[in-house]
Amino acid sequence: MKPYDDDLVHFEAHGAAPLPASSDQGHVEHDGARIWYATYGTGSPVILLHGGLGHSGNWGYQVPALVSSGHRVVLVDSRGHGRSTRDSRPFEYELMASDVLAVMDALQLARAAIVGWSDGACVGMILGMKSPERVAGVFFFGCNMDPSGTKEFTPSPVIDRCFSRHAKDYAQLSATPDNFNAFVGAVSEMMKTEPNYCARELAEIRVPVAIVQSEHDEFIKPEHADYLAQSIPGAEFILLPGVSHFAPLQRPDQFNSVMLAFLDEVLAQGNGEQGPASS
Questions:
Q1: How many domains does the chain have?
Q2: Dist CA 56 CA 260 (whole Å)
Q3: Crossing angle of helices 180-193/157-173, nearest 10°?
Q4: From residue 146, how far is each of 104, 131, 177, 192, 248 by CA, in Å?
Q5: Residue 273 has what DSSP assignment?
Q6: Which of 1, 107, 138, 228 is deepest in the core (most CB within 10 A)?
């Protein structure tokens, strides 16, 4: 594994590690959008959901680790992100969650574990909340579940480098490559009011959950992560020392070790079987 990229200098210049050759990739037409997906490997299915303004290629250090550990990895570009399109409606996390279910249906995945990063973690938690029969567990990294959980935004060189990489990738991958500024505005508008779930709703979650918080997360209050872990029945809290909101890129081995341990635990319970999707 490459040296630490705590300052995201390598990521800004080169992106994450290139994804391996996929077993299958394409688009699923769903609710006004074409949702891009790709699959890798065989075994217990794990869906990786990227963060806001990013795309599935940001998981380049996680896919090989998951495949070599015996998982079938499914990547999904959120609507309007990466290779996925969107219609004129505002971004909504619940709509993004419905897109993931559409991909699962197309791939005939009855159930999968979800690993979500930032906005992708919110989407994964919504799936665990609203469609628990489809979710073996949620690895919830670096996100809030109501607006009170976010810190006041403070620019930094690390955030600037990440944003720069996102802009380059959007221009290369998107069907609307000149619309990055409008895209950022639309995603930012969603983040002002979403997600917004109360403690009562969190208390109804019954799938296994790990709340994973970085020591130096730039966006999420540590006390909010504690609150989530306390509000969701049986949730596990995991602190990642020395890293920030970009831990999967900064220190992949550290992130992967806790991710794989969680997946081993929840999938060993027999909840990760692959089969035809329920109608």
A1: 1
A2: 18
A3: 120
A4: 27, 20, 31, 10, 23
A5: -
A6: 138
Q: What is the pLDDT of residues 189-242, one digit of tens each?
A: 999 999 999 999 999 999 999 999 999 999 999 999 999 999 999 999 999 999
Instruction: Tell me how far the alpha carbon of residue 99 is from its chain's centroid.
Output: 13
Q: Which helix (H) or strand (E) holds 57?
A: none
CATH number at residue 77: 3.40.50.1820
**Sign of torsion over alpha carbons 230, 131, 19, 108:** positive
List CB contacts of 20: < 8 A, sequence separation 6 or more. Answer: 40, 63, 64, 67
H helices of the chain, where? 9-14, 63-68, 93-106, 119-130, 157-173, 180-193, 199-202, 222-231, 247-250, 252-266
Closest to 219 in 3D by CA, of 153, 145, 175: 153
pTM above 0.90, yes or no: yes
Each residue's pLDDT tens digit, 74-113 = 999 999 999 999 999 999 999 999 999 999 999 999 999 9
Q: Which residues contact 194 (CB under 8 A, 6 or more apart)?
A: 92, 93, 122
**Closest by alpha carbon to 5, among 242, 249, 240, 216?**
249
Answer whether residue 75 is part of any domain: yes
Asked if residue 165 belongs to a domain, the reply is no
Condensed to tens digits (0 to 9), the pLDDT of residues 124-142 reads 999 999 999 999 999 999 9
- Note down the domain range covering 46: 26-144+209-268
Q: What pLDDT score was predicted for residue 2?
A: 57
Q: What are phi and psi of 140, to 5 degrees?
A: -105, 100
In a domain, 152, yes or no: no
